[in-house]
């Protein structure tokens, strides 16, 4: 009975049944003009970066929904140290809630840290095991040496505060970000993909795919947001991720020009699309369309990419496994 329903509709119905306390959520917090609203507009609204430069400070809570049912909330910027005490965070905090706290590295860092500390104190009093992801933002205007100095200094201050308060340091992760390069997509992907239901199973499938096909790296990307929702268990490489994001941009351009990446007229049958893009340094990118919105993007050495038929065969098997885990229509549906 599920074959007559679009894949995205099935997925939304699946996640609507999740209890609010366990529903995956990402809360973006930070001082006014730290750049958190710009981050979300660039990723989820596909706004040009320059369009977000002169945004007014956020005064209301803004909600986005990611692929996989993850809810993302842009909370108003903190003007005073205890502003978040006036928001009922109990409505948002649950066992699957993570915080993204955005710090403008070109602004008053000391004041931003005071805001962060007060937010930590409040949130840990409600949910002691909440994960904090600190985005050290707007690093594009800084030299590499200054970026690293600021990163080390901020980490030292935050860990010192957490040690003093008796908080668990493992609850904090740091990312250097900018909306003017791929770093913001990498950071948001690494934050959000941990919240995807059954992510460990998806990771195992992609890891097995890498072993059997001799791939260096495999990602399952959401084409709309350019965020990966799963990857293999091999060490993360930022350069690979940048190549993959650029590939999605290329695919978007091709999709605009041609109609090959569309569903047929009935809206039910999807024809898989396969492509190989050759890079320098004896590497290629292999892509395989899973459905209208999801794509496998893999880093592969040129000597392996020549055997395209084997890669395509394995990718089709992996695609069917991913659909089963993601509760998509069963494998009997035509591809």
From TrEMBL:
Pfam families: Gtr1_RagA (PF04670). Gene3D superfamilies: 3.30.450.190, P-loop containing nucleotide triphosphate hydrolases. Belongs to the GTR/RAG GTP-binding protein family. Component of the GSE complex. GTPase involved in activation of the TORC1 signaling pathway, which promotes growth and represses autophagy in nutrient-rich conditions. PANTHER family: GH16429P, RAS-RELATED GTP BINDING RAG/GTR YEAST. This is GTP-binding protein. It comes from Smittium simulii.
């Amino acid at each position: 009975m599920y074959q007559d329903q679009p894949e995205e509709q099935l997925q939304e119905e699946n996640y609507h049944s999740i209890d609010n306390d366990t529903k995956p959520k990402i809360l973006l917090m930070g001082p006014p003009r730290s750049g958190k609203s710009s981050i979300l507009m660039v990723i989820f609204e596909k706004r040009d970066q320059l369009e977000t430069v002169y945004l007014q400070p956020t005064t209301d809570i803004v909600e986005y929904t990611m692929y996989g049912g993850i809810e993302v909330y842009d909370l108003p910027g903190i003007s005073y140290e205890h502003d978040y005490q006036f928001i009922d965070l109990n409505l948002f905090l649950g066992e699957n809630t993570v915080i993204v706290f955005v710090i403008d590295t070109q602004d008053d860092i000391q004041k931003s840290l005071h805001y962060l500390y007060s937010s930590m104190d409040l949130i840990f009093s409600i949910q002691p095991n909440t994960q904090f992801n600190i985005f050290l933002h707007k690093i594009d205007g800084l030299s590499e040496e200054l970026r690293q100095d600021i990163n080390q200094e901020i980490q030292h201050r935050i860990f010192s505060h957490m040690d003093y308060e008796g908080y668990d340091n493992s609850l904090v992760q740091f990312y250097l970000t900018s909306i003017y390069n791929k770093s913001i997509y990498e950071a948001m992907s690494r934050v959000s993909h941990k919240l995807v239901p059954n992510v460990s199973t998806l990771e195992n499938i992609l890891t097995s795919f890498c072993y059997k096909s001799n791939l260096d790296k495999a990602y399952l990307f959401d084409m709309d947001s350019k965020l990966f929702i799963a990857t293999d268990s091999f060490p993360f490489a930022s350069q690979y991720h940048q190549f993959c994001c650029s590939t999605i941009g290329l695919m978007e351009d091709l999709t605009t020009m041609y109609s090959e990446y569309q569903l047929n007229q009935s809206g039910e049958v999807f024809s898989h699309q396969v492509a190989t893009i050759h890079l320098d340094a004896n590497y290629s990118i292999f892509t395989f369309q899973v459905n209208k919105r999801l794509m496998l993007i893999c880093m592969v050495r040129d000597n392996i990419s020549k055997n395209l038929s084997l890669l395509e065969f394995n990718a089709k098997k992996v695609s069917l496994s991913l659909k089963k885990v993601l509760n998509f229509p069963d494998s009997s549906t035509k591809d």
